[in-house]
Amino acid sequence: MDDKVYVAIARELEDDILSGVLRAGDAVPSTHQAAERFSVNPATAARGVTLLFERGLLEKRRGVGLFVTEGARDAVWERRRSEFREKAIPAVVAEAQKLGVSRQELLAMLLTGPAGRL
């Protein structure tokens, strides 16, 4: 299976942490539950969950499973904001420059967003 699949699984679980679906102290899905949820083999699901563990977002409780750590939401929020600032914004600006979109037009686009508002 493509290595990027496990990263997508980790990102979706991070989305659950950001949105409050998974809160500090909550159990995360087992490897088999995650495999079923994401329609992948258990090894791929385990890689996604392990990535979050390695980032310090999950803790192991022996014999019980993995749980969301205190501060996990803030850690995800900080990392995602940093990624957004360092990757997404420069990409948008570069594309706007290629298309000849002025700063004022780009700002207006950002303020209104695709749904008509930000």
Topology:
Elements: H1 3-19, H2 31-38, H3 42-54, E1 58-61, E2 65-68, H4 72-99, H5 103-112
Antiparallel strand pairs: 1-2
Helix pairs in contact: 1-3, 2-3
Q: Could you write a compact summary of the structure shown?
A:
With 118 residues, the chain is mainly alpha-helical.
How is this structure best described in words?
The chain has five helices and two strands, in the order H-H-H-E-E-H-H. Helix 1 packs across helix 3 and helix 2 (31-38) packs across helix 3 (42-54). By secondary structure, the chain is mainly α. It has a two-stranded antiparallel ribbon with strand order 1-2. The chain has helices spanning 3-19, 31-38, 42-54, 72-99, 103-112, and strands at 58-61, 65-68. Helices cover 64% and strands 7% of the residues. Strand 1 (58-61) and strand 2 (65-68) form a beta hairpin. The N and C termini lie far apart (37 Å). It has a domain at 3-72: Winged helix-like DNA-binding domain superfamily/Winged helix DNA-binding domain (Arc Repressor Mutant, subunit A), CATH 1.10.10.
Task: Name some characteristics of this structure.
118 residues, Arc Repressor Mutant, subunit A, 2 strands, mainly alpha, two-stranded antiparallel sheet
What is the CATH architecture annotation of the domain at 3-72? Orthogonal Bundle
Question: CATH class of the domain at 3-72, anyone?
Answer: Mainly Alpha
Mean pLDDT: 92
The percentage of residues in β strands lies in 5-15%
